[in-house]
Fold:
Amino acid sequence: MERAGPTTTRRRFLKGAALAAVPYALLPDPRAGAQAPAVDYPAAEWQPAGTSNYTASNRPRTYPLDYVIIHVTQETYPNTLSIFQNPQKQVSAHYLVRSADGHVAQCVREADIAWHAGNWDYNTCSIGIEHEGWVDQPAYFTDALYEQSARLTAAICTRYALPKDRAHIIGHYEVPGTDHTDPGPNWDWTRYLRLVNFA
Structure:
């Protein structure tokens, strides 16, 4: 244990003075506790969905992961984030990809069950990726969106040993019981699977 002699007192004073010179905004927020938890996909930004919009789990221990499900939002990127954060909406996806630049937001941990498929069994065994855009407006399916989404899907498939094929990377319209049509006829599956396999 250090004794508080003149040298120690001076050192503490200098440390305090140095901290006082740091702008308040740069200091860690003492209320924050730990930093925001790391994302599952390193290129993603953490934009958490409301806790009322997904089910906490411990996948793949609790449920095996068998699919990546591709969605199109029928909304803008910021509106989709707002929907996922609204506890009244009862919907979420693990990831959201922005059209203009392919920016990826993670909204639900991969270990947790996002409510994206409209079918509980498929929710439990899949990762949902939403893409900003509308099914009837192919201009939203930009090169950046395809490329960044394909990298994300490839990383998920590698992490959970899923084959990078159409049996395991499916559209929302392929989920049993759904009335959704996304990603729609303008989604280029051939191009997407090629990008996933070369990512």
Summary: The chain is about 30% helix and 15% strand.
